[in-house]
């Protein structure tokens, strides 16, 4: 509810800002229309109301609005919140304040704007409620005043309880006159009120107040409503006096003066017409001149022009490659200079994404040097460039028809970010050029001590290369002073020599440029972002020493932060720098997998991996986007490991944790994490194991064990992060209880399982049985329900690698009992026994006594 209200509030704020530009225009145009027809001003206010109430807007190249969406709809979840007013001066002043005040903290459970905006939405709702209550009270008080009014004729009534004439009623409007109204003033007053009814003013003014109630937070709209009331009265006066002579206009003006006293209290009621702006109205009535034809025509043209330029949003880029296709595209990494060409299938994906791109807003704010870019060249030789400025993928800009645009489409920003990350991975796989290897080796020597950045030139220089090194940057200090930076300009660059430059947090740019000239005339260049690396070194210096306890807490906190949105964006916030092992051999690995159901029995997957090389400078936040259809997403698994390199391509697990999420999902909130555990206890003659999973869910496995059998309560954790329980017979281990993930997790596919059949349902057991080298035999159902079953079986598997040839490798087997119920938990339970531990009758009896339920 709070999220929905916050989304509505953001939408209303954007509409209000767009309408404010129109209000400012109308305030100016009213001055130009002083000699024009008065109804033109009312029509202009009607355009303001239409802008506020219309559920959609068109785009136009003629639009004068600087931005169609000042507050991005995703601002609450943005790692770098910013406004897109379309006015560069405003953005330059406001956005640094917004970013500094509301940027999310790495360890916070929610972004500051996720708290503030719902709170503001509640304040807005309270204001709407207060104005609705005021309207109701005003309406009831006015109705009580006119309850005893005496009919004069038709819809005209007279009462001693009203101080001034007015029209009251929406469907059947009535005219109410004060009893004390002089006889000579009645005819002009009645003519005025009847003109209100003829113009449907008894509809337009309440509608204006309804809009003011919704947009009460905008002071410009209060001014607009007040002026609307005045312009309605002036337009009504004009309609009445245009057929009068000078004497009749004088009588009409006198009637206005006589009705002007005591009007304030009545004028406050949104459903009643009081007299407003009497001085201006008397003057207008006495000096009325029929507007010239050119004035009327000009007013109509002016209203039409205003409608076109202020009721439409700025024209945003639309990409159509049907006649001018993308010939090639390159992803550039400016942070660690490299480039990667997209292949044919990737070009098709890029074409599809660009043709569907809609989230852009105009901006005049120039960015600093981009971290990465995607450059697409079309068949006619023109290029499209999309620059990314933040290492979390949140800020992407492009130029279109000579204008700068901010990309607000989260999906496209995540796509571009992932392309950048993929470039790093593919570059590592494909190999580095000699200068790139040199730059990497130099980067590995960087140290930051006592405000000095140290580095050592590698001993091995690219063969035959003549190297040139330049270090430059820029600093901006708190007092407003800024300067360009140049370091070691006269240095004699010697391989193996150590150098240093001063470092200050006031630096906004700092980089090292490497140029290599080869004997064959070829050239190569590399750029090292020293500023980015220095910031990362500062961050990594606070990394804690790695211990089992530190690793477990780091993994748990990181898993708990996992958040995804209904649009497919995900984020993983590490609680701080990645813990560092003393020998440097243990690093952090992260894998994220998503499974989609494309139909009954058909699936697709997404996967994302992070290695210690990606954490070279302390880790941070991970953001990305699932590429599949979120409506088909059935499960997500996040696995985090600290792995130790044992040498000879061997690794061991130092610490691990996993998070398993299944549909239906909770979006826009951290998933949370509970350490998996299993508690074993006896109750009512049965042994029970209460499992608690990483997402906080629980399941209870109840069993009646044969005499002499017990379940070991001290558990271990398997590779999937699930507790494993030992089965003991007279104190000796004869088996174990495992929980294994179901083959599928989407209900339509699971619903196809025949739970009572004595055939292995692969929808349940595919993870263990869908192989030529392992599976279940002698599967026999002992008990079943609509969504689950318990069966005895024999698990067989081949001891691959024993003889060096699969055809001669021996087979092994064990007895087991299998239990599942997909409405209780997304796992099946395997009771695995050593050969001969239980007879066939004992296995069947055990199966008959097993129950699965929600814990």
Topology, pairings included?
Blueprint: H1 2-32, H2 39-53, E1 58-60, H3 88-102, H4 112-145, E2 150-153, E3 156-159, E4 166-168, E5 174-178, H5 183-198, H6 201-214, H7 219-241, H8 246-258, H9 264-267, H10 278-286, H11 293-310, E6 312-314, E7 326-333, E8 338-341, H12 344-355, E9 360-362, E10 372-378, E11 383-388, E12 396-400, E13 403-407, H13 410-430, H14 434-443, E14 447-449, E15 452-456, E16 466-476, E17 482-487, E18 498-502, E19 507-517, E20 523-528, H15 530-540, H16 548-560, E21 563-564, E22 569-573, E23 586-599, E24 602-610, E25 621-625, E26 633-647, E27 650-662, E28 677-683, E29 686-692, E30 698-703, E31 709-717, E32 723-729, E33 732-741, H17 747-750, H18 762-769, E34 774-784, E35 788-798, E36 811-821, E37 827-833, H19 840-848, E38 851-854
Parallel strand pairs: 1-6, 3-5
Antiparallel strand pairs: 2-3, 4-5, 7-8, 7-10, 9-13, 10-11, 11-12, 12-13, 14-15, 15-18, 16-17, 16-19, 19-20, 21-22, 22-25, 23-24, 23-26, 26-27, 28-29, 29-30, 30-38, 31-32, 32-33, 33-37, 34-35, 35-36, 36-37
Can you tell me about this structure?
- It is a single chain.
- The strands form 9 sheets. The protein has a 7-stranded antiparallel sheet with strand order 8-7-10-11-12-13-9, covered by helices on one side.
- The chain is built from 19 helices and 38 strands.
- It starts with a helix and ends with a strand.
- With 855 residues, the protein is α+β, with helices and mostly antiparallel strands.
- The protein is globular and about 120 Å long.
- Strand 34 and strand 35 form a beta hairpin.
- 33% of the residues lie in helices and 30% in strands.
């Amino acid at each position: 509810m709070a999220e929905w209200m916050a989304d509505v509030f953001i939408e209303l704020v954007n509409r209000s800002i767009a309408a404010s530009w129109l209000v400012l225009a109308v305030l100016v145009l009213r001055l130009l229309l002083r000699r024009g027809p008065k109804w033109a001003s009312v029509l202009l206010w009607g355009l303001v109301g239409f802008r506020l109430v219309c559920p959609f807007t068109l785009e136009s190249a003629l639009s004068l609005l600087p931005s169609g969406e000042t507050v991005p709809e995703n601002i609450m979840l943005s790692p770098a919140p910013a406004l897109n007013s379309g006015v560069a001066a405003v953005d330059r002043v406001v956005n640094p304040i917004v970013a500094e005040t509301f940027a999310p903290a790495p360890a916070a459970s929610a972004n500051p704007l996720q708290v503030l905006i719902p709170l503001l939405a509640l304040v807005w709702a309270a204001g709407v409620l207060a104005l609705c209550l005021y309207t109701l009270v005003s309406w009831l008080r006015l109705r009580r005043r006119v309850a005893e009014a005496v009919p004069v004729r038709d819809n005209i009534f007279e009462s001693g309880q009203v101080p001034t004439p007015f029209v009251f009623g929406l469907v059947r409007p009535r005219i109410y006159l004060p009893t004390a109204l002089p006889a000579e003033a009645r005819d002009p007053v009645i003519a005025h009120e009847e003109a209100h009814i003829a113009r449907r003013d008894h509809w337009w003014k309440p509608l204006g107040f309804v809009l003011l109630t919704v947009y009460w937070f905008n002071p410009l709209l209060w001014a607009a409503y007040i002026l609307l009331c005045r312009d309605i009265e002036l337009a009504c006066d004009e309609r009445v006096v245009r057929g009068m002579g000078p004497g009749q206009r004088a009588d009409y003006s006198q009637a206005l003066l006589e009705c002007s006293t005591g009007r304030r209290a009545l004028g406050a009621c949104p459903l009643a017409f009081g007299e407003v702006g009497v001085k201006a109205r008397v003057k207008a009535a006495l000096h009325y001149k029929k507007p010239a034809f050119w004035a009327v025509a000009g007013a109509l043209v002016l209203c039409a022009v205003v409608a076109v330029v202020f009721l439409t949003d700025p024209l945003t880029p639309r990409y159509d490659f049907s006649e001018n296709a993308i010939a090639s595209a390159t992803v550039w990494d400016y942070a660690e200079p490299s480039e990667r060409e997209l292949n044919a299938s990737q070009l098709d994906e890029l074409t599809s994404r660009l043709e569907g791109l809609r989230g852009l807003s105009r901006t005049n704010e120039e960015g600093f040097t981009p971290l990465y870019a995607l450059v697409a060249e079309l068949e006619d030789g023109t290029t499209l460039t999309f620059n990314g400025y933040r290492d979390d993928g949140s800020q992407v800009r492009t130029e279109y028809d000579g204008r700068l645009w901010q990309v607000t489409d989260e999906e496209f920003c995540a796509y571009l970010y992932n392309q950048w990350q993929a470039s790093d991975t593919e570059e590592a796989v494909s190999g580095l050029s000699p200068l790139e290897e040199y730059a990497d080796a130099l980067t590995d020597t960087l140290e930051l001590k006592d405000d000095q950045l140290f580095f050592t030139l590698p001993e091995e220089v690219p063969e035959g290369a003549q190297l040139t090194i330049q270090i430059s940057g820029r600093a901006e200090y708190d007092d407003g002073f800024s300067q360009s930076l140049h370091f070691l300009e006269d240095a004699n660059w010697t391989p193996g020599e150590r150098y240093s430059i001063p470092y200050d947090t006031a630096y906004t740019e700092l980089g090292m440029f490497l140029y290599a000239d080869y004997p064959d005339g070829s050239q190569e260049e590399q750029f090292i972002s020293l500023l980015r690396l220095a910031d990362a070194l500062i961050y990594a210096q606070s990394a804690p020493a790695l211990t089992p306890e530190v690793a477990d807490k780091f993994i748990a906190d990181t898993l708990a932060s996992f958040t995804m949105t209904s649009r497919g964006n995900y984020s993983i916030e590490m609680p701080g720098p990645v813990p560092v092992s003393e020998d440097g051999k243990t690093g952090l690995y992260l894998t994220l997998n998503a499974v989609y159901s494309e139909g009954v029995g058909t699936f697709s997957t997404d996967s994302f991996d992070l290695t210690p090389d990606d954490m070279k400078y302390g880790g941070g936040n991970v953001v990305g986007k699932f590429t599949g259809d979120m409506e088909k997403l059935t499960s997500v698994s996040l696995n985090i490991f600290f792995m130790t390199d044992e040498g000879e391509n061997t690794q061991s697990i130092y610490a691990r944790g996993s998070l398993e999420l299944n549909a239906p999902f909770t979006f826009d909130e951290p998933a949370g994490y509970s350490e998996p555990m299993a508690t074993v206890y006896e109750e009512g003659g049965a042994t029970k194991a209460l499992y608690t999973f990483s997402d906080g869910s629980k399941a209870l496995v109840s069993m009646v064990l044969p005499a002499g059998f017990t379940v070991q309560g001290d558990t271990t954790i398997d590779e999937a992060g699930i507790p494993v329980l030992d089965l003991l017979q007279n104190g000796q281990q004869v088996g174990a209880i495992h929980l294994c993930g179901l083959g599928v997790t989407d209900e339509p596919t699971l619903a196809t399982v025949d739970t009572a059949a004595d055939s292995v349902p692969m929808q349940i057991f595919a993870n263990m049985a869908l192989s030529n080298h392992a599976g279940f035999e002698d599967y026999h159902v002992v008990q079943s329900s609509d969504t689950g079953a318990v069966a005895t079986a024999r698990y067989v598997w081949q001891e691959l690698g024993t003889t060096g040839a699969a055809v001669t490798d021996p087979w092994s087997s064990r007895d087991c009992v299998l239990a599942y119920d997909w409405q209780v938990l997304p796992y099946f339970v395997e009771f695995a026994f050593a050969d001969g531990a239980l007879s066939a009758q004992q296995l069947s009896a055990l199966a008959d006594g097993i129950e699965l339920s929600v814990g």
